[in-house]
Design goal:
Strand content: 15-25%
Oligomer: single chain
Radius of gyration: 16 Å
Structural class: alpha/beta
Number of strands: 7
Distance between the termini: 26 Å
CATH superfamily: P-loop containing nucleotide triphosphate hydrolases
Order of helices and strands: EEHEEHEHEHEH
Shape: globular
Largest sheet: 7 strands, mixed
CATH topology: Rossmann fold
Number of domains: 1
CATH class: Alpha Beta
CATH architecture: 3-Layer(aba) Sandwich
């Protein structure tokens, strides 16, 4: 049964810089991903709300760190998309600096969900984000979005390919190994698995699914 807490998500603030971030307390789970990988759609599906996170076909529309409150102690966070966003180079540099400071210093951050298009996973931008999370010892979970665009066999092959790549790259490191699942906002694939991971990071009592056990940060 899906946790009804996520349906209560409401937008509270958008922070253009780390100086504008809300109080660093409680629990936060952030969502990151290459522009147009389906990050906003994933947040909307997980919260069962159609317009909570702004969806756009134009890369780079999310330019603030947007906070969605679940309850007074728990928040979802939508980070600016990275990669080929059609914005000025100076803006991209500012986003990167803001993301780095946020990931390295935010004490309430319990985990990062990285959204990747299942047809183009593990880009150089994704690898950079994963490396940063490993360096910060931050638990990481990958949503391979738009899984409905692939056949069942092809989607399963991509999932195993990504799992092998993660194990080869990070198994020897003293940090939580990133976990991964298939996801489709259009077909509601993988929402329950995503909730399992979020429930654990938010310290909610729930029955954990396989491949979603992470130590707290």
């Amino acid at each position: 049964m899906l946790n009804p807490l996520y349906r209560r998500a409401i937008f509270t603030t958008g922070a253009p810089t780390v100086a504008c971030l809300p109080l660093d307390s409680g629990y936060e789970v952030a969502f990151a991903g290459r522009s147009n990988a389906g990050k906003s759609s994933a947040i909307n599906s997980i919260t069962n709300q159609k317009t909570l996170a702004r969806v756009s076909k134009t890369p780079g529309r999310t330019q603030h760190i947007n906070f969605f409150e679940l309850d007074p102690e728990r928040r979802l966070v939508d980070l600016p998309g990275y990669g080929y966003a059609k914005v000025a180079h100076s803006v991209k540099e500012q986003w990167q600096q803001t993301l780095t400071v946020y990931l390295d210093t935010r004490q309430s951050l319990r985990g990062l969900v990285i959204v990747m298009d299942s047809r183009h996973p593990l880009t150089s931008f994704d690898q950079h984000m994963l490396d940063a999370c490993q360096h910060a010892r931050l638990p990481t979970h990958i949503l391979l979005t738009k899984a409905d665009k692939l056949s069942k066999g092809a989607a399963g092959a991509v999932l195993q390919q990504v799992r092998r790549a993660l194990a080869e790259r990070y198994r020897a490191e003293d940090a939580p190994l990133p976990t991964v699942q298939l996801f489709s906002a259009l077909r509601n694939i993988g929402i329950e698995d995503a909730h399992h991971t979020l429930d654990q990071w938010f310290n909610l009592k729930t029955t954990m699914g396989p491949d979603t056990e992470h130590p707290q940060k």
